Amino acid sequence: MLIDYHAKCIFNFKYQSGNITLNLPTLSDIQQAESRIREAVHRTPVLRSRQVDERTGCRVYFKCENFQRVGAFKFRGASNAVFSLSEEDSKNGVATHSSGNHAQAIALAAKMKNIPAYIVMPENSPEVKKRAVAGYGAEITFCEPTQQAREETLEKVVENTGSTFIHPYNDPRIIAGQGTSALELLQDYPDTEIILAPVGGGGLASGTAIAACGMKPEVKVIGCEPEIADDAYLSFKTGELQPSKNTQTVADGLRTGLGELTFACLQKHLHSIVTVSEEEIVSAMRYIWERMNIIIEASCAVPVAALFNDKIEDVKGKNVAIIITGGNVDLDHLPWE
């Protein structure tokens, strides 16, 4: 499956990783994605909080992708990938594996293109995300909550349906689509000096870093990750792709590991990666709910927690942007109950 996927992709920039030559997306790819999906996605707002500024000693700008269609930034990449497909590649529909937000995004994008969507979801995915995927008309196949189970189940689905696999993050079209959020941010707030983004599979962090590097190279893009699911941090530190071993973090959107393509993007463009504890994540999530009156997922509370707990160096007096990645929360299982 992965070999077929890499062989099928067409890229622009070559990056040698072991025996595989990858092509990294560029700012031009992100700009083309923005043009392709402009009519389908929301240009999300940027919110401020005086209390957050006072607490952190910097000017914080929240790019609110929790107000995006399907409630998450994932619709940007999914719509770019689906809308890029040829008639031949889309005739049997699309397939993917995801714990929720990417699943919803692919389901909606496929519905808009009037093609089937086949989604493999771990059994422990939040119920709110399962219901949303079904609500968009996708056919769901559940699997054990491991990366191996996801991939093996997905391979069977693709074989049985003839659908086209769209990887949740290790796909240049996905990365380019996710990068449109940072593109908008820097267009609207060109004085941004630091951007914080959560890191799971690395699609958002990759797209964000590529957009920032292309538009304003002096901007630092910093990835933020749970301490107990720190494969990206270890990969970045060691220079070798590390597997994801812990899937129990409260930040359910960050339970996947990096792909070879996203790892290469982060190595080239990301400034650094920091980690935060589970307690810090939950505390930051609740603070934003209570003080800003907006719903955010635990995954996008990770960069907030990094800022709140002094994990980011040299931020005093700076313009710091945080990408709030989503707001799809299971209200029956809040992490502070």
Automatic annotation (TrEMBL):
Recorded superkingdom: Bacteria
Any one Gene Ontology molecular-function term assigned to this protein's record: ATP binding
PROSITE patterns: DEHYDRATASE_SER_THR
Cofactor: Mg(2+); Ca(2+); pyridoxal 5'-phosphate; Mn(2+)
Keywords: Lyase, Magnesium, Pyridoxal phosphate
Native source organism of the sequence: Halalkalibaculum roseum
Protein name: Pyridoxal-phosphate dependent enzyme
Alphabetical GO biological process terms: D-serine biosynthetic process
Family: Belongs to the serine/threonine dehydratase family.
Tagged with keyword Cell membrane: no
Lineage: Bacteria, Pseudomonadati, Balneolota, Balneolia, Balneolales
Pfam families listed in its UniProt record: PALP
Domain Tryptophan synthase beta chain-like PALP: 38-326
